[in-house]
Amino acid sequence: MVTNIGHWYRDRKGTSNGIPVLHVVANLERDASWQTQTDTFLRARGVSICGNDYTTTNVNVVRNLFAPPTPSNPNPRPVFAVINCVSNSPSHPQWQLLINHIEAGGGAKNYSVNISTWRTLIDSVQSPPPAITDARWNGGLFEFTIPGQRGRTNRVELSTNLQDWVTLTNVFGTNGPVSIREADTGESTERFFRVVRP
């Protein structure tokens, strides 16, 4: 999971739609005698975010939200859950549970097929329509920022009357913000900008 989900999306700076993916591990082992072994295990695998799923009075609170124990699986683990945290996605509602995979635990398993399917589901979340942000004057240049998306083109258009639009530039990018500079805009010139997906 760390390599093929967490690091996969970290190295690509998000999904194919430019959406960041945060991989979080929950430690279900509260016995202090296992803490050193758990820390060593997580460090060796490059886990950067891990929370404990227990307090002094409760245990497995988060796990039980997704995988409550049953007679046939009294101690479900590992549990893999993927939640869409993107607001305004045209494809998925915010907080939708995309994946809730539960195992009985107790042995090694090859998750290659699962990971391929899970990445497809994660990548299916569409990003909100691109928006112009961080508009500013910078040394006589008008600048703003738009989101870049790996493998996608966003077209930046401008207008002086909100009816006739011309293409300022096409941005075919990698994931991350892209700065746009419009050098011909004077402070008194009325121009309007928009970002569209062709």
Account of the protein in words:
By secondary structure, the protein is an alpha+beta fold. Helix content is 19%, strand content 30%. The strands form four sheets. A three-stranded antiparallel sheet has the order 5-6-9, with no helix packed on it. It has a three-stranded antiparallel sheet with strand order 8-7-10, with no helix packed on it. Strands 1-2 form a two-stranded parallel sheet. Helix 2 links the parallel strand 1 and strand 2. The model has no long low-confidence stretch (mean pLDDT 88).
What keyword list fits this structure?
198 residues; alpha+beta; 3-stranded antiparallel beta sheet; 4 helices; elongated
Strand content: 25-35%
User: Strands of the biggest beta sheet: in what spatial order?
Assistant: 5-6-9
Morphology:
elongated
Mean pLDDT: 88
Biggest β-sheet strands, sense, barrel:
3 strands, antiparallel
Counting DSSP E segments of at least 2 residues, the number of strands comes to 10
Give the end-to-end Cα distance, rounded to a whole number of Å: 35 Å
Give Rg in angstroms: 23 Å
Level of helix content? Answer: 10-25%
Q: Pairing-aware structural class of the strands and helices?
A: alpha+beta
Topology, element by element:
Blueprint: H1 2-11, E1 25-27, H2 35-44, E2 50-52, H3 61-66, E3 79-83, E4 97-102, H4 112-123, E5 133-138, E6 141-148, E7 152-159, E8 166-173, E9 176-182, E10 192-196
Parallel strand pairs: 1-2
Antiparallel strand pairs: 3-4, 5-6, 6-9, 7-8, 7-10
